[in-house]
Amino acid sequence: MFFSTIIPTIGRESLTRAVQSVLSQTFAQAPFEVIVVNDSGRPLPAAPWQQDPRVRLLHTQRRERCFARNAGAAIAQGAYLHFLDDDDYLLPGAAMAWWQLAQAAPTAVWLYGAIQIVNNQGAPIAVIYSRLQGNCFAQVMGGAWVPIQVSLLQRQAFWAVGGYDQQTPPVIEDLDLCRRLAYVGDFASTEATLGCMLRDVDWGTSTPYENGVAYNRQKRDQLLELPRSFTRMRASASDCFWQGRILHTYISGCLFNLRQRRFFTAVSRASHALATLLLALPCVRKKRFWQAVRAEHVPDTLYFALRQLEQAAQAQQA
């Protein structure tokens, strides 16, 4: 089986659209399946997709999305795993695009394409494509975004890094998984837009995004402890911008550990920051390097699409 789509759900009305967007893929090269994980704590309304032989339904009784996704992955038969939220959906041709990527890059642990951000009416807001290929550890550690909704993850690699960390609050769980996979393997991508992600000014979610910054720093700092972390980031820094993001990562790590009163770890982060600066000497006179060091967000991320949406909404109100 080529891939297994895992859709954790809390019973939103958009679930049928999400499931059907996968089942309706015109793709005959290999079988695929959909695993819907009902984490709502109540039965799902009857729907025609529940009778499709390619669909399996699990119940996890309000255990949160990391548990639900791991539960679905545990019974998945596909060589690749696809995680789709119940309010997002695939576009026609996504499965074929993944197949072509898998044939071109059979050892890649993460295959993905561009994603379209849409509002409640389905109108496009932005298309985001991160352009990451190969070793991109510095990029994902430095803030690049690879949307899980249009990604296939190699199943063996997913379990090799422990799957979703169920101790991670449901704020940065996708980013944390992306970083851990980038540490062990390479990525491959296509410019084709493979799916849509719903965001609007009145978009509702139970995710506590206001806590994301603290969790992000904590989980990222844990990865800096791993052997080869520094050398793998250095190997993936393709230009001065990403060398600047490595410096940003270590400076942030130093400040985080100082606030946590972990002084020896803070010294380690500072020493790596100094090493990064010395190795990046050809870049220190370039404006782009220092822009990368100072920036809180990097290009081609969801942050800028949402900011544009907010600015448009404010302009309409004015």
Overview in brief:
By secondary structure, the chain is of the alpha/beta class. It is built from 12 helices and 9 strands.
Q: Can you count the beta strands?
A: 9
- In CATH, the homologous superfamily of the domain at 3-211 goes by the name Spore Coat Polysaccharide Biosynthesis Protein SpsA, Chain A
Total helices: the number is: 12
The secondary-structure class comes to alpha/beta
User: How many angstroms does the end-to-end distance come to?
Assistant: 53 Å
**Name of the CATH first level of the domain at 3-211:** Alpha Beta
Q: What is the residue-mean pLDDT, rounded to a whole number?
A: 91
Rg is: 20 Å
Strand content: 15-25%
**Largest beta sheet, briefly?**
9 strands, mixed
The shape is: globular
Fold-level CATH name of the domain at 3-211 = Spore Coat Polysaccharide Biosynthesis Protein SpsA, Chain A
Low-confidence stretches: none
- The residue fraction in helices comes out at 40-55%
N-to-C SSE string, H for helix and E for strand: EHEEHEEHEEHEHHEHHHHHH
The CATH architecture of the domain at 3-211 can be given as Alpha-Beta Complex
